[in-house]
């Protein structure tokens, strides 16, 4: 018998008891110090069971039932390998992020995409013919996998710049999933400028679940960070748009902060709390702007623009609004030590649902049946790699080239956590964001570690979970 390597023990404020959590089984217990002491003796004391009283034996049984005590290390690591294999092969839900276009109507300061120079003249846009072929591919996948759920996320660029493709896909795939008895949900990740009741009318009958909108701080900060090309602010119009649709669908708010905007977020939270639609916000979460690897990059920020090993920008999709607000795409990117923790607490204080900072993964890159499709029909393992053609793992035409096979094999072998020793967070982190690893370290197979952020989130999580358990 051994204590699990995935155990975490957190002292509870103002009490002698401890919060015990196993990051693999997700078991959570509030225990007295003698039970914690007993756990320490497991594995360290030969023939321990014979020396224990009946009540101690009962406590040990309970600890084992919840995964705090395991047979041996080998068995535990085998279980972890099985877990990651199951995550990879899970076919119960087919998840697809479709980039309807790489064009964007914003000219955000921190993003190379969007309405800068002649970018939008050349940026790709999915045609209706390609959208139709994507639907063929989805139907084929559904039949092959027998999935009972289908999650479709529209993303970009700015997805609402190509609404015909959204509506055509939503309608056709809704019919396809009805015929197969598959549950379908649509999420949209948008900057919110073109969000109208008409958009909701068009998607609502086809499984619209949530719309995630990005606000980069209070009005002053947001208008500075996310202006139109002519420098006009966008905050007021986005808020007005949310007001017009919030009673009809779930709204999630995301935001990207940099050092000189982070302090405006409490004001944004106060503003949101005062709106009529406050109780319609299903999730509010913020993350740092991801910057490209450069001498000028702010230390500690995850690069947004993924760069290849040669240092050239990937030109991938804008990751700043990634995350559906429903727990899928890229919510795991939301990691940055102190500021992240502070903003999470501020968000909770105002009664908004947010990420707990502990259950952050494994992210969708580890799921074989979660893919991103670019405007030309190329298939990618996650949105962060969409700008680099060589990172495509396939194409909806199924006419695969050698480079697709090579890339698919490379993504298949992702297992950065294998370099993480016996870190207790492995089951919920999996070694961090592979896009960040690629960007910051030039190797997606290396871990990108934000352990301090998870440790601090766990302290807060423990106090709240313990209060509910008591
Ligand atoms: S690798 Fe990074 S960008 Fe890609 S899905 Fe995971 S967390 Fe998101
Ligand atoms: S990246 Fe860091 S926190 Fe994540 S599993 Fe590895 S060591 Fe742990």
Could you explain how this protein is built, in words?
This protein has 470 residues and is of the alpha/beta class. It folds into two domains: 2-71; 92-412, Aldolase class I (TIM Barrel, Alpha-Beta Barrel), CATH 3.20.20.70. 36% of the residues lie in helices and 15% in strands. The protein has helices at residues 33-41, 54-65, 73-89, 119-122, 128-145, 163-180, 197-203, 219-225, 235-245, 265-273, 337-349, 402-412, 426-429, 434-441, 451-469; strands at residues 2-3, 7-11, 18-22, 28-31, 69-70, 93-99, 149-155, 183-190, 208-214, 250-257, 281-288, 370-373, 378-380, 394-395. The chain has a nine-stranded mixed beta sheet. The protein has a three-stranded antiparallel beta sheet with strand order 2-3-4. Helix 5 (128-145) packs parallel to helix 6 and helix 11 (337-349) runs parallel beside helix 15 (451-469). The radius of gyration is 23 Å and the shape is globular. The protein binds iron/sulfur cluster (2 copies).
């Amino acid at each position: 018998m051994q204590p699990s390597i995935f155990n975490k023990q957190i002292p509870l404020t103002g009490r002698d008891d401890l919060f015990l959590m196993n990051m693999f089984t997700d078991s959570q217990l509030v225990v007295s110090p003698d039970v914690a002491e007993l756990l320490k003796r497991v594995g360290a004391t030969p023939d321990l069971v014979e020396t224990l009283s009946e009540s101690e034996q009962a406590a040990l049984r309970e600890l084992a039932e919840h995964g705090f005590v395991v047979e041996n290390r080998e068995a535990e690591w085998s279980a972890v390998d099985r877990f990651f294999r199951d995550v990879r092969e899970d076919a119960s839900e087919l998840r697809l992020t479709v980039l309807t276009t790489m064009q964007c109507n914003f000219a955000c300061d921190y993003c190379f995409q969007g309405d800068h120079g002649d970018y939008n003249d050349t940026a790709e846009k999915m045609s209706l013919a390609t959208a139709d072929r994507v639907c063929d591919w989805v139907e084929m996948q559904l039949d092959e996998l027998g999935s009972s759920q289908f999650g479709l996320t529209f993303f970009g660029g700015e997805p609402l710049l190509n609404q015909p493709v959204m509506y055509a896909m939503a309608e056709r795939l809704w019919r396809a999933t009805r015929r197969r008895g598959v549950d379908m949900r649509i999420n949209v990740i948008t900057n919110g400028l073109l969000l109208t009741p008409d958009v909701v009318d068009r998607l609502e009958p086809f499984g619209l679940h949530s719309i995630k909108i990005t606000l980069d701080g209070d009005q002053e900060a947001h208008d500075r960070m996310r202006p139109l090309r002519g420098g006009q602010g966008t905050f007021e119009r986005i808020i007005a748009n949310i007001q017009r649709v919030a009673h009809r669908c779930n709204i999630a708010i995301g935001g990207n902060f940099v050092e000189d905007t982070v302090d405006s977020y409490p004001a944004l939270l106060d503003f949101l709390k005062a709106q009529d639609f406050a109780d319609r916000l299903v999730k509010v979460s913020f993350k740092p702007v991801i910057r490209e690897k450069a001498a000028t990059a702010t230390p500690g920020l995850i690069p947004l623009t993924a760069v290849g090993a040669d240092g050239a920008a990937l030109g991938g999709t804008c990751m700043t609004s990634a995350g559906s607000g429903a727990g899928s795409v890229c919510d795991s990117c939301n990691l940055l030590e102190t500021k992240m923790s502070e903003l999470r607490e501020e968000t909770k204080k105002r009664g908004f649902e947010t990420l707990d900072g502990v259950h952050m993964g494994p992210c969708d890159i580890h799921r074989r049946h979660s893919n991103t499709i670019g405007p030309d029909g190329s298939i990618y393992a996650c949105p962060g790699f969409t700008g680099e053609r060589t990172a495509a793992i396939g194409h909806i035409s199924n006419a695969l080239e050698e480079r697709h096979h090579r890339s698919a094999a490379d993504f298949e072998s992702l297992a950065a956590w294998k370099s993480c020793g016996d870190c207790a967070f492995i089951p919920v982190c999996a070694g961090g964001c592979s896009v960040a690893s690629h960007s910051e370290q030039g190797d997606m197979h290396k871990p990108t570690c934000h352990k301090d952020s998870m440790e601090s989130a766990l302290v807060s999580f423990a106090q709240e979970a313990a209060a509910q358990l008591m």
